[in-house]
Amino acid sequence: MSKRTIAIIGATEELGSAFSIGLAKRNYRLLLFDPDIRKLALLGHEIRSLAPSADVEFMNCVMNASWEADIIILTARGNEKKELARKIEQVTNRKIVLNLLSDDDKDDLRKFLPGATIVNIVTRVNHVIDIHSSNADANETAKEIIRAAGFRPATSNNKNNLNQSKINTMETTKWTLDPTHSEIHFKVRHLMVSWVTGSFKQFDASVETDGEDITTAKVKFTAQVNSISTNNEQRDAHLRASDFFDAANHPQLSFESEKLEKIDDENYKLYGTLTIRGNSKKIALNVEYGGVAKDPWGNTRTGFSVSGKINRKDFGVSFSMVSETGGILLGEDVSINANVEFVQQVAAQVKAA
Fold it and tell me: What region does 259 belong to: left with phi over 0, alpha with psi -120 to 50, or beta?
């Protein structure tokens, strides 16, 4: 039996894109529609790179697709969603419509699509949580499509029980560092009148999130001590020695996060454990979230600016000297600044939270 043909209206929306990619990888025939031709082209590039043999058509017109599709998935938003609904009104008789729009749109859709069986999909943090429809056959079809797209469905026929029926399942998303667009810097007081700045030239980091919910991020970071640079070779050699980082016995410093706390849409607090010279201590860092974007080659990218301050003596870096005038040669507080960019990898698995 051949798989159903699915039309996704608003294919470049966040959920529309996730469904498009997930179903394409499982060889469903897809008809993808979106008014934004540029975004549609980027989505097409990503699908072709992940699923070269996928049977997918990319169109800017809604009407033709809906005649052919067995199932319609609505994810469009803003003022265009009602217009899209009106365009497919004539061709939805006996079709199943998976509605991923907000609750406010449901009554309108029933008016616009009188001949269709509408299955309302309730989402939380961009993942399918609940299916709500009185039609058992339509529910089963919705489950099939949702599973195929990489999500785990739950069903509820009682609105009062929606919150009780949540299944907290999310797809693990891995993000790998793009070192060509990332940098790690530090600075420390010299004689308490100026600053010495430095960086690590070799480092790596990874982030895992539940779907694209950034607050679930698990961060791991390592830097090679021998790559330290302050633009002075003699000073760099001293920093690698036992007075400071002791690179011979502790070639790496590392950080592993415990939680990411949201302050507002752009600012977060990252808590975790930093290890230097074998000494581990919990620290908190400020994080500015740059958002998510697609590059010209279809890759999904995200970026962060990270800042914070540590006391080097907490980590066993206790070397100190006094100047001829009695001043402290090197400050104890070290300021950290990082600008890092990550590339989203293919989702690894579906797991229970």
Answer: beta
Looking up tokens 């001829």 gives 324
Conformation bin of residue 262: beta by default, left when phi > 0, alpha when psi is -120 to 50: beta
Distance CA 174, CA 207 (A): 6
**Domain with 261 in it: what CATH number?**
2.40.128.110
Same structural domain, 147 and 293: no
Q: In degrees rounded to 5, what are phi and psi of residue 211?
A: 65, -130
pLDDT, tens digit, for every residue of 151-186? 777 655 444 433 333 333 446 889 999 999 999 999
Residue span of the structural domain in which 223 resides: 172-352
Residue-wise pLDDT for 282-298, tens only, equals 999 999 998 888 887 88
The pTM of the full predicted model, rounded to 2 decimals, is 0.52
**Residue 128, strand partner residues:** 123
* Strand 228-229 versus strand 279-294 pairing type: unpaired
Backbone angles phi, psi at 309, to 5 degrees: -145, 135
